[in-house]
Amino acid sequence: MTEDNRRELAAVAAAFRMPRYRELPDIGLYMDQVIALLGQYLDFIPMEDSKDKPVTPTTINNYVRLKVMPAPEKRKYYRVHIAFLIMIFTLKQGISINGLQQLLPSTANEEEIKSFYTGYIAQLQEVGNFYTAQTRAAVQGILDPQAADDGAVENVIIQSILQSGFSRIMAEKLLHLQNADPERVMELEKVSDSRGRHPLVQIPEKED
Fold first, then answer.
1. Phi, psi at 73, each rounded to 5°
2. DSSP 22-36
3. CA-CA distances (angstroms) from residue 15 to 47, 88, 131?
4. Burial (Cβ within 10 Å: 0-12, 13-18, ≥19) of residue 15
5. Which ranges in the chain belong to alpha helices (H)?
6. Which one of 116, 131, 137, 143 is most buried, counting C-beta atoms within 10 A?
7. Residue 57, pLDDT above cutoff 50
8. Range name among 1-10, 72-81, 197-206 with the lowest pLDDT average
9. Spatial distance between the Cα atoms of 60 and 56, rounded to a whole number of angstroms
10. Among the ranges 16-20, 156-160, 169-173, 190-194, which has the highest mean pLDDT value?
């Protein structure tokens, strides 16, 4: 592993902080200003290469068209819009557009959006702090220039992918169950172990 690689891993393990609602600009920004601002807020999201951008006019327009977020006011984006975009672009890493539509507020009431965003950012910070601590611990040996590689990087990558995959599966399943009859869902899924128990439901053992 090169020294540049080690520096990149160290950056991945660095803590991040998202803006509070009152810190978001409310002066009315045009699209190019919004993209520049979100680029600063979301700089921790990895890109496949230097030409990739996590936020583009096309993606923002699509989220407006699909009613995942409110439409701009006379082509300007305010605090409410920036809050939605931060939530969308951090959530989209692990959930579908349908999931976003279900999860995010459908109200236009700013106080309700502010309350939702404030709670969301608190959770994001808590989970982010947990995973950055986990990442630091996982890559500590790798960052040592004297340490042998021995597949350690690959192991961290595999563990991260598995955690991400299982987290997405659980999130999608919970969203599916949220507005559905759980008994009907489990009947349709027909998922059970060898003793006929559904993995998401704990059934008390019968006493002999």
1. -100, 110
2. GGS--S-B-HHHHHH
3. 18, 20, 9
4. exposed
5. 3-12, 31-41, 57-65, 79-91, 97-103, 110-143, 152-178, 182-189
6. 116
7. yes
8. 197-206
9. 6
10. 16-20
Q: Could you tell me which residues come within 8 angstroms of residue 53 by beta carbon, excluding any fewer than 6 positions away?
A: 35, 39, 47
pLDDT band at 25 (very low <50, low <70, confident <90, very high): very high
- Report the pLDDT averaged over residues 176-193: 59
DSSP letter assigned to residue 53: -
CA-to-CA distance for 180 and 53, rounded, in angstroms? 37
Spatial distance between the Cα atoms of 82 and 25, rounded to a whole number of angstroms:
8
User: Which tens digit of pLDDT belongs to each residue from 147-176?
Assistant: 555 666 677 667 777 777 677 777 776 766
CA distances from 50 to 7, 29, 46, 160 (A): 17, 25, 10, 22
- Residues, the chain: 208
> What CA–CA distance (Å, rounded) separates 85 from 165?
23
| Distance of alpha carbon 150 from alpha carbon 96, whole angstroms | 36
The letter for the amino acid at 34 is V
Cβ partners under 8 Å of residue 98, min gap 6: none
Task: Identify the DSSP state of 38.
Answer: H
Question: pLDDT tens digits, residue range 83-129?
Answer: 999 999 988 877 888 888 888 998 878 999 999 999 999 998 888 77
